[in-house]
Amino acid sequence: MNCGSFDKEVIHVFEFKSEYFFIRDQRCANLYDKIKQIKNWEEVEIGFKKYQVASIEYAPF
Hints:
Strand content: 15-25%
Structural class: alpha+beta
Distance between the termini: 18 Å
Largest sheet: 2 strands, antiparallel
Radius of gyration: 13 Å
Shape: globular
Strand order of the largest sheet: 1-2
Number of domains: 1
């Protein structure tokens, strides 16, 4: 997703149309700090590639 996906209205559309969605924002210090504190990463395989995933509660607005 691009920077438009980090807009409150865009997020509402995704919440309505999808159970899960992902937002990547490399310039958000508050979110970055929350991610650094995650202890329970889970390994999953998507399309023959392994990823480490986790979930957090985060309300940027």
